[in-house]
Design brief:
Structural class of chain A: alpha/beta
Number of strands of chain A: 14
Number of domains of chain A: 2
Strand order of the largest sheet of chain A: 5-4-1-12-13-14
Strand content of chain A: 15-25%
Oligomer: homodimer
CATH topology of the largest domain in chain A: Rossmann fold
Distance between the termini of chain A: 13 Å
Shape of chain A: globular
Helix content of chain A: 25-40%
Number of helices of chain A: 8
Chain lengths: ~270, ~270
């Protein structure tokens, strides 16, 4: 079993459902043992990057919340979809109509949003009103070449008070209404994982992804040539273990167990 | 050309986008010439049925609005998705969680809704808040055998102030989030057209459908063996005429022209 982890030089950690469960009064609760596990990774000399699809806050705000929960994390250790989307928008001279959470808006402050020629959709949560989704729909259907950029394609995530619909569901609604296919800039897009690996300076076979999402974390990372572990926290459901396409390299109860497994071989 | 309409004994008319454009202060505006066209059909001896996917009101309220616009229409001439859904729910002992427009709720008054074992989704319009869609999602994802019944699968419709997202977009969101396939009880479901034909006592080849929706009206009716005409009113878009799968038996500018064409051969 231990042989499986040989050659590991870096860990990529999903955040929501792995480090903490989001939602509720304080913005969430840490998952037991995860803060200690992050400290152990850093002490071990392994490289570390946080790969999140969360788009409900700027990275600054997001990192501050996690620091408050006791995590050793800084903004420059985080790979997130909003900055990736901004790169794409600039490269292709796209001016977005934004359907995103209020708190992630500042990430797009420098982007020209006049006379939109595309729609960017993120996890807008309560901003997903009928009126707002309809407005995004009207922009898209009015374009000669409709471009829909989605900050992820997650189905749902777990908050402290239960499961919540994620951006993927609303992306599908717009795809169907306008007969377009969205371009994903978060997980499981290959480009997203590759940019995290480049930041770390490691090859895919040297890295292990740890996540609670069988498709977007585990499947996405494996498609890039990485190994991937699914934790039984967050949105994990027992039926994930019978997934027809994706088989993680290991299941673990939580991040603490994942780190123990991987550090044992060093 | 006239030969195409030989043997016609009945007309099935879509309502929104054919008789009137919905929305705005008075609930919509009639399309010029349509009220007169309905009278001509009735005077001609052709059988007539109104086939609507509208689920924003009870049939009673809906018919009253159309009568106010000057249409000769009564409740027992209307085939609509909500009563069709009630039949399915009763036959299969299903207890729905309803995500529908407030005004269509009375159609489900007699249905047991305690301890839901399925979700019924209609065109809920402003009721499609994030909280409401999430509630329906949680019911579905919590069922061992999730059943999603949709009162149509339209992408969008046209109101007086512009295009509006229809139930199909939200159906797709739930399908994706829960990995289920919805059962459609409105157009273009075969059962829906067949029940309208049974009410009229005619065979499919004796009936002509008139609608503004290339897929749900025209395609659905043709799949049942009926002929179908697309009107260039309502949500019609020029790109419909290049639809890769569906070719109407004729295009007409509006219902008045359709009726003129068909009556000419009688």
């Amino acid at each position: 079993m231990a042989a499986r982890w040989r050659g590991t030089r870096a860990l990529l950690l999903d955040v929501s459902g792995v480090l903490y469960d989001s939602g509720g009064e304080g913005g969430g609760v840490p998952i037991a043992g995860s803060a200690e596990a992050v400290r152990k990774i850093k002490a071990s000399g392994l490289k570390l990057r946080f790969c999140t699809n969360e788009t409900q806050a700027t990275r600054e705000k997001f990192v501050k919340k996690l620091q408050g929960f006791g995590f050793d994390i800084s903004v420059d250790e985080v790979t997130a979809p909003a900055p990736a989307a901004c790169r794409v928008l600039r490269e292709r001279s796209l001016r977005p109509h934004l359907l995103v959470h209020d708190d992630v808006m500042p990430e797009f402050a420098e982007i020209d949003k006049t006379n939109p020629n595309c729609v960017v959709i993120g996890d807008a949560a309560d901003n997903f009103t009928y009126a707002n989704l309809n407005e995004a729909f009207r922009v898209l259907i009015g374009l000669e070449n409709p471009v829909l950029i989605s900050l992820g394609r997650g189905r749902y995530y777990k908050e402290t008070d239960g499961l919540k619909l994620d951006v993927g569901a609303y992306m599908k609604a717009l795809e169907y209404a306008c007969d377009v296919q969205a371009e994903i800039v978060g997980k499981p897009a290959k480009m997203f994982f590759e940019s995290a690996l480049a930041e770390l300076g490691v090859e895919p076979h040297q890295a292990v992804m740890v996540g609670d999402d069988i498709v977007n974390d585990v499947g996405g990372a494996q498609q890039c040539g990485m190994r991937a572990v699914q934790v039984r926290t967050g949105k994990y459901r027992p039926s994930d273990e019978k997934h027809p396409q994706v088989k993680p390299d290991a299941y673990v109860d939580n991040l603490a167990e994942a780190v123990e497994l991987i550090l044992r071989q060093l």
